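Need a sequence for this fold. Nothing fancy.
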């Protein structure tokens, strides 16, 4: 495994194991610099969303990155206020224009809005049929939401992106996704930095001469979870990529798995504010 290693998704598309998350990158120059740095380091996936208001900067950065578009993997998401069949199709057009690309690799329903997520996903399926996206997916979908889509969709979601870190290991949802051939991406893979002061994680890191962030990202990969850590700091962008030269033992994996406390740093898909 290396930084450009991929996971073969249910529809045969190769998705990079590691991507750069760009949530809360609000300063345009800083955003472009972070993405440029990540691509120089070897990242090939960028995770944005309409909500992040930086799709233009993502587009600009990847156009000037010196890497062919087809070697990059761009994810974006339809925001809650634009869900439903027609509105999703329109929102997709806007994202495509802002990114200034001809297709998007992975398009996700951002959250499962109760009366809309089925129609939203139907629109995503249409975009997939029209080859405007390479992978149809969802985010913040629990088993109950996925079951509805598995029942209604012709092409089931291929990826589910959820909050996932050592304090919220999502084992039941991950098992359900594995059984249904849905790849899992961890958002807030570092718990927004909140798990990095954990002494158990730090002690494991000392054994391998790795930082807590590297241990946590490696734990995700060994659990077959894709990661999209966010940082604008060049040294951290590099650090978060240096996770391919060590392997956590089964014992350390078990210790990390045992840190779960079902603690969320973000909102709960069962009970979330519609617009935030
Ligand atoms: P994260 O777990 O990636 O943590 C990011 C924070 O951790 C940074 O702001 C920085 O303070 C710190 N950090 C990063 N690397 C570090 C390092 N090596 N050492 C020490 N500290 C470090 O949290 P996130 O930004 O919430 O999540 C990552 C990405 O997931 C986002 O940027 C976004 O793309 C995506 N996301 C998606 C959803 C969704 O609803 N689908 C929600 C939140 C985030």
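Here you go.
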């Amino acid at each position: 495994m290396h930084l450009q290693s991929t996971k073969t998704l249910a529809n045969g598309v190769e998705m990079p194991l590691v991507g750069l998350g760009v949530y809360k990158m609000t300063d345009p120059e800083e955003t472009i610099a972070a993405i440029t740095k990540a691509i120089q380091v070897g990242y090939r996936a960028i995770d944005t969303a309409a909500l992040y208001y930086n799709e233009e900067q993502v587009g600009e950065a990847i156009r000037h990155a010196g890497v062919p578009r087809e070697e990059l993997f761009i994810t974006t998401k339809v925001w809650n206020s634009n869900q439903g069949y027609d509105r999703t199709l329109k929102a997709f057009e806007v994202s495509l224009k802002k990114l200034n690309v001809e297709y998007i690799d992975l398009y996700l329903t951002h959250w499962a809005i109760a009366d809309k997520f089925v129609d939203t996903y139907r629109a995503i399926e249409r975009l997939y049929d029209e080859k405007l996206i390479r992978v149809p997916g969802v985010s913040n979908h629990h088993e109950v939401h996925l079951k509805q889509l598995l029942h209604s969709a012709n092409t089931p979601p291929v990826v589910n992106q959820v909050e996932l870190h050592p304090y919220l290991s999502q084992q039941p949802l991950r098992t359900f996704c594995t059984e249904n051939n849905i790849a899992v991406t961890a958002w807030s893979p570092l718990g927004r930095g909140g798990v990095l002061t954990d002494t158990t994680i730090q002690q494991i890191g000392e054994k391998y001469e790795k930082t807590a962030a590297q241990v946590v990202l490696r734990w995700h990969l060994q659990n077959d979870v894709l990661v999209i850590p966010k940082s604008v700091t060049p040294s951290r962008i590099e650090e978060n990529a240096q996770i391919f030269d060590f392997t956590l033992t089964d014992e350390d994996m078990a210790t990390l798995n045992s840190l779960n406390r079902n603690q969320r740093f973000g909102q709960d898909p069962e009970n979330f504010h519609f617009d935030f």
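For context: Residues 21-23, 47, 110, 139-140, 161, 187-193, 196, 213, 228-231, 236, 239-240, 266 surround nicotinamide-adenine-dinucleotide (CB under 6 Å).
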